[in-house]
Amino acid sequence: MHNDIRNNWTLSEIEAIYNTPLLDLIFKAASIHRKYNTTAEVQVCTLLSIKTGGCTEDCAYCPQAARYNTGVDVHALMQKDEVLAYAKKAKDAGSTRFCMGAAWREVRDNRDFDRVLEMVKGVNEMGMEVCCTLGMLTEEQAKKLADAGLYAYNHNLDTSEEHYHDIITTRTYQDRLNTLEHVRKAGVTVCCGGIIGLGETQEDRIKMLHTLATMPQHPESVPINALVPIAGTPLANNKKVDVWDMVRMIATARIIMPATMVRLSAGRTSMSVAEQALCFLAGANSIFAGDKLLTTPNPSFEEDNAMFDLLGLVPRESFKEEKQKLSEMVQATV
Predict the structure, then answer these.
(1) Where on this chain does [2Fe-2S] cluster bind (predicted)?
(2) Once rounded to an integer, what is the mean pLDDT over residues 29-40?
(3) Which residue of the set 45, 99, 132, 279 is catalytic?
(4) Are strands 314-315 and 296-297 parallel, antiparallel or unpaired?
């Protein structure tokens, strides 16, 4: 693999990349994408809400916060058998990563967490990369998840540190960074990105990318979400994100984090196949599949399969990095 991945980007360097004329930016990002990745491969991930609603946090974009009246029904933690049946359906439809989300502020050491650990074991045994997003984690909890077979942990920064307090007041930016550190220490891969359309400035977007690209190790996966405004939340009246802003974010992320999976996440339902194709050209190589992302709509498996056929895309296999490293070690000893 190429060894020119940098973790010392300056804000002004990232700003210059972000503000490159759009077609030049897409070309540059596409060139780097070809150098580091197999461009026809897209990681297909499925996200399931295993515990929905009733969250004590005040994230301004989230319909699962108990304090907002958004029509989201509160559901207790799902049964393991239900979750594994959903994972099998996702695998049969082409997903190679299965992510389980629970509307918790933080993980508590209780029976529910024990049940999640059992779910992680079950999905791992199916040969899928298993991911969780459960809120804040201690070092010990991260280790328990790792021991159960967790492959990735999602914990988004959402926005820049400066804009963060306008979106969430129930936990700090540092809390988020601490959880990511605990995940890293446990040897679990990191999935961390953000949302655009939260009323942030262009500078906020650049600062968030800077935080991600200057971590000691880049996140293995960076989701770029477009806000889906939900009635009843404080951001219900925010206007729809322009597709060119998504393309610009994806291209910049690809240039500064060349080997990372850049995930085209929430907001795909309002994008045409042509607009999504531009995102793939600009370096996106991961999507969420299935008709729902936690509680927001998402294109169906059938729609995505048709798009993959049209664009010549194929799902990336599970544990590809590990398999590559293993074959390189074997070749080195021959």
Answers:
(1) 99, 131, 191, 263
(2) 94
(3) 99
(4) unpaired
Annotated binding site for [4Fe-4S] cluster: 55, 59, 62
Segment (H or E) for 264: strand 261-264
Catalytic site residue from 97, 263, 268, 316: 263
- Place 234 in a pLDDT band, splitting at 50, 70 and 90: low
Q: What is the mean pLDDT of residues 14-37?
A: 96
298 exposed, middle or buried (CB, 10 Å; 0-12, 13-18, 19+)?
buried
Mean pLDDT for the chain?
Answer: 86
Tell me, yes or no, if 45 is annotated catalytic. no
Which two tokens mark 232?
A: 């009843």
pLDDT of res. 54: 60
Active site residue 62: yes
For the question of residue 279 being annotated catalytic, the response is no
Residue with tokens 């655009």: 196
Detail the residues annotated as belonging to a binding site for [2Fe-2S] cluster: 99, 131, 191, 263
Tell me if residue 132 is catalytic: no
Domains and CATH numbers, the chain: 11-333 (3.20.20.70)
